[in-house]
Amino acid sequence: MNVHDSERLAGMLEEAGYIKFEKGTTPDLIVFNTCAVRENADNKLYGNLSHLVPVKAKNPGMQIAVGGCLAQKDQHAITKKSPIVDVVFGTHNIGSLPVLLERARIEQEAQVEIKESLVEFPSVLPAKRESAYSAWVSISVGCNNTCTYCIVPSLRGKERDRRPGEILAEIQALVEQGVSEITLLGQNVNAYGVEFGD
């Protein structure tokens, strides 16, 4: 799911005028798309952020954004632990990243925006795929199970399924672009369609 979200983030940023930085240069923007399921995800994030403190000091115009599940979970704690972070966005509003970056730049203060429910399916956002022949298609987001060991429902929310027609239209468009390998995504794809009741 994070790879899919990262492709969407890259697509939105490209559409907003950002370009991928060249090695040997300092980027204007660094985006961390985090996980909260994997062990030590928070240590990894804060370790990476600590390495960026001197870089940001030399390049105060550089922006740092943190999104994904850890951002959804920790919210304002991220900017308290790491004041160099300019934007924190959650799993339900990845589409707002370009606006939050612009707002942080204009207001010169960190923007933390976490939504408690999905604003729009990530699949409707522009994508910049690493592969020309394979693609991820989100069929559902969230999970209705309450497994004691799993944090996913509290971070991705209740399950919401896309209608079959939307999924098929996206797949058809991908095939027309030359994609030959499509992976259907969801936290709990086995429950897909239950909410439709038809």
What does the model show?
By secondary structure, the chain is an alpha/beta fold. It has 2 domains: 2-113, 3-Layer(aba) Sandwich (Rossmann fold), CATH 3.40.50; 123-190, Transcription Regulator spoIIAA. The protein has helices at 2-15, 41-58, 69-74, 77-81, 97-107, 152-156, 164-176; strands spanning 29-34, 63-68, 87-89, 111-113, 134-138, 140-141, 160-161, 181-185. The strands form 3 sheets. It has a 4-stranded parallel beta sheet with strand order 1-2-3-4, with helices on both faces. Strands 5-8 form a two-stranded parallel ribbon. Strand 1, helix 2 (41-58) and strand 2 form a beta-alpha-beta unit. The longest helix has 18 residues, at 41-58. It is globular, with a radius of gyration of 17 Å. The mean pLDDT is 90.
Secondary structure topology:
Elements: H1 2-15, E1 29-34, H2 41-58, E2 63-68, H3 69-74, H4 77-81, E3 87-89, H5 97-107, E4 111-113, E5 134-138, E6 140-141, H6 152-156, E7 160-161, H7 164-176, E8 181-185
Parallel strand pairs: 1-2, 2-3, 3-4, 5-8
Antiparallel strand pairs: 6-7
